Amino acid sequence: MRWLLTYADMITLLMAFFIMLYSMSILNLARFQEVALSIRSGFGEEHQGRGLAAHGVSRGAGIRPLEAGGSVAGVPYSLIRGLKSEIQRQGLEGKVLLGSDERGLVITLLSDRVLFAVSEARIRPEAQEILKGIASLIRETPNDVRVEGHTCSLPVRSGPFATNWELSTARATEVVRFLIQQGIPAKRLSAAGYADQHPAASNASEATRLRNRRVEIVLLRPAVGGDPAASVPR
After folding, report:
1. Is there a contact between 118 and 233 (Cβ–Cβ < 8 Å)?
2. What pLDDT, on the 0 to 100 scale, is given for residue 77?
3. What is the DSSP string of 126-189?
4. What is the pTM of this model?
5. What is the domain-level CATH number for residue 93?
6. Which residues of 29-68 are buried (b: 16+ CB within 10 A; e: fewer)?
7. Is 1 a member of any domain?
8. Helices marked H in the chain — which ranges?
9. Does residue 186 lie within any of the structural domains?
10. Is residue 16 part of a domain?
11. Distance in angstroms (rounded) separating the CA atoms of residues 39 and 21
């Protein structure tokens, strides 16, 4: 029965071989895409965003690209399409991102690229046009809206804000004030600052830290917006 030894060796080797193939097929997708983003940024290529899901390491990983033709959180796609057209008209693809998650429709504006100067919370004049377009979408919907400020992990080194907590909250509040000026009822709006606690990408390089310095305007699903206590767990 010596052939059984050879047979057993072959089976063991085959099992090890298939285990190796399986382990090689499982990639750390988030890490791979962060490296790819860094390489593209190094060559001066802008990332054409399809939502933040490709860069997520926190809650941002749950943001999905929008599918054509479907409503999100009760927002008709015709309104979303109008906002997409405005983003394209202003050449803001990759700087203003549209997606959805369990909270609702998520409009992400990269702070340093669109809204604010570094360490400041005053909206740039050139950013007001896209905010007016977002306000027009909000006016056409009944959804409550939460504006969330986020920063990267680098400490604040200049300006009037002592920490990223103050900076992120001030930026969110500034956007809320602008939306109120555009005729959005204040009772539909709320502001929150999360500093660097909910990154959308790694903080390992400047290319990925850019993704974390952002403001998210969330048109909440009715179940979330209708009950303050029902806020989605973070």
Report:
1. no
2. 86
3. GGHHHHHHHHHHHHTS---EEEEEE--SSPP-SSS-SSHHHHHHHHHHHHHHHHHHTT--GGGE
4. 0.69
5. 3.30.1330.60
6. ebeebbbebeeebeeeeebebbbbbbbbbbbbbbbeebee
7. no
8. 3-25, 29-42, 77-89, 128-139, 164-181, 206-212, 222-225
9. yes
10. no
11. 28
Residue 137 · residue 75 · CB < 8 Å? yes
Please check whether residue 38 lies inside any domain of the structure.
no
| Side-chain-facing half-sphere of 92: CA atoms under 13 Å | 27
**What is the pLDDT tens value at each position of the chain, 234 positions in all?**
677 888 888 899 998 888 887 766 655 544 555 555 555 544 444 333 333 333 334 455 467 777 776 788 888 888 888 998 989 989 998 899 999 888 999 999 998 888 999 889 999 999 999 999 999 999 999 999 999 999 999 999 888 999 999 999 999 999 999 999 999 999 999 999 999 999 998 898 888 899 999 999 999 988 654 444 444 444
Residue 36's pLDDT is what?
A: 55
The full 3-state SS of 174-194, as one line of letters, equals: HHHHHHHHCCCCHHHEEEEEC
What's the total number of domains in the chain?
A: 1
**Edge-to-edge order in the sheet of strand 214-220:** 64-65, 96-100, 104-110, 214-220, 145-150, 189-193
* C-alpha to C-alpha distance for 202 and 52, rounded to whole angstroms: 12
